[in-house]
Description:
Blueprint: H1 12-30, H2 53-62, H3 72-81, H4 83-87, H5 93-112, H6 126-141, H7 155-160
Amino acid sequence: xxxxxxxxxxxxxxxxxxxxxxxxxxxxxxxxxxxxxxxxxxxxxxxxxxxxxxxxxxxxxxxxxxxxxxxxxxxxxxxxxxxxxxxxxxxxxxxxxxxxxxxxxxxxxxxxxxxxxxxxxxxxxxxxxxxxxxxxxxxxxxxxxxxxxxxxxxxxxxxxx
Length: 161
């Protein structure tokens, strides 16, 4: 044991821990841990029953939406359900029809060669989507009615007040 670090009779793990503790103390004294990002802030710990906490935190840190992890069939179904929201802000009917045609092409390709769990997916109808898009734009473009004048109170109600 001569020439080795530690006291005679110390176990390997005791020497190993003390070496690490010494390195941490030295680094703290030199200020290596000063001004670290997140210093003094609480830790963002996951829920105890979430076994995939590390996957979710990594996706959140990388900015990847969780929808990217879905199988293609479920992702397509979500895209069909969100279609009205996706085309709401488009400027003209041609752009709406282009988005619907692209989604329809992807749905048809999936129906030919399905991948993932079998999920029923309906093909989007361009005419139906354009009709809902026009209706939403008409509601948004309609001027708000002027505020109604306050109703006059009847004379017998005024006498009681």
